[in-house]
Amino acid sequence: MHVMGIIFANDASLGELTTKRTSASMPFGGRYRQVDFALSNLSAAGVRHVGIISQHNYQSLMNHIGDGEEWGLELEEGGLEFLTPYSMSTSHTYRGKLESLYSAMDFLEFGSDDEYVVMIDSAVLSNIDLINVLNAHVKSGKDVTVVTKAGVADGKRVLDLAVKLDEKGKVCDMLVDYAAPEGYLASADIFVVSKKWLIGKVLEHMARNQFHMDRDLVLGGWQKGEVSVNVYEFPGVVMYNDTVEEYFTNNLALTDAKVRADLFGYNHPVYTKVRFRVPTYYGEGCDIENSLIADGCMLEGEVEDSVLFRDVTIAPGAEVEGCVIMNDAVIGEGSELKYVILDKNVTIRPGSKLIGTKRNPIIIKRGEIV
User: Fold this and answer.
1) Residues 150, 104: Cα–Cα separation, whole Å
2) Sheet of 307-308: strands edge to edge?
């Protein structure tokens, strides 16, 4: 089975955290980037022809992925390609996923004998066996297979796409951009289609001035009886990082060993760019509880229920609780931080006090001194 992958890199905005980077390149879980999960899922399924569609702020993403060696996707004919608007002949902005695919038509049409396309949103994290999904899609004979997760729809959280199945397991209802009630399955933003079918549908919908995959292609086509939909229910952990609150909560959820084992090893390892650092130093007076600590840190204060990325310094007397601290941050002596997200290279002066909430963590932008 010949398969290509498409990763959408700009589908979530995390406020100040994504003003200078794509959601795909957001640091996550101490040493990873969000795109690592999509790349690892595709690589584990043997997909070696992957395109990454990014609208803007993609330099950090390109720096992280490099030539794709860590995922077995070295930049070459049939390997990994960055599909930025500046390398395409149409617009520099996208009004929806269908328009972004239209801009990447050369990648879809030429230079490959792939039969199927797997499309993944980099802001939704999972560790999924895509071979099982592909086999289920082929067996179903349907036009589209959408990967879903039960237990997410609660009548409060607005979902990009939610589907409901009848007693026979067939789709009986769909909702787009709506807080679907319990009983609906939430899309994990992973779709499988045939390449020939996708190309035809993209061209058709663009000719009708329709740009959105969930609303125009999947829901609209299903309602008209023109698109058949297969649903693949994934039992593992799925993390939706569409908002700052979700990103913050999901990072801290990794302090739970069961969640961590599921996300990083449910089906296969999650690969990332290799960066060699010295081991973390735990000072004689430090107190670390229920936290995820990357390498290269200098810890002499107190850390509880937090995620620390590489090369973080916690000075003596500093107290950190329920925080996400990115690379190269320095927390000064006697500081107190609770429910805070520090971007890279932030310095917290001695004696500072920053107290947020679980729903509204304080965000300190990259390189700032507080």
Assistant:
1) 32
2) 292-293, 307-308, 324-325, 340-342, 362-364
Q: What is the pLDDT of residues 258-291, one digit of tens each?
A: 999 999 988 899 999 888 789 999 999 999 999 9
Task: Kindly state the average pLDDT of the residues 58-73.
Answer: 85
- What pLDDT sits at residue 217? 97
Residue with tokens 């698109």: 227
pTM reported for the whole predicted model: 0.93
Tell me the HSE value of 59 on the side-chain side, using a 13 A CA sphere.
3
Bridge-partner residues for 303, per DSSP?
288, 320
Which whole-number Å values give the CA distances from 290 to 296, 315, 327, in the listed order? Answer: 18, 19, 19
Rg of the chain over Cα atoms, rounded to whole angstroms, equals 21
Is the Cβ–Cβ distance between 319 and 337 less than 8 Å?
Answer: yes
Instruction: Tell me which H or E stretch contains 9.
Output: none
| Angle at alpha carbon of residue 198, lines to 195 and 200, rounded to 5° | 110
Question: What's the CA gap between 292 and 303, in Å, rounded?
Answer: 10
CA atoms 241, 245, 247, 250: torsion sign = negative
- 142, 228 contact by CB (below 8 A): yes
Instruction: List C-alpha distances in Å: 218 to 71, 104, 142, 228, 322.
Output: 30, 20, 12, 9, 39
Q: What is the pLDDT of residues 108-149, one digit of tens each?
A: 987 668 899 999 999 999 999 999 999 999 999 999 999 999
Among 232, 217, 99, 214, which residue's Cα sits nearest to residue 158? 214
| Alpha carbons 297 and 295: distance in angstroms, whole number | 6
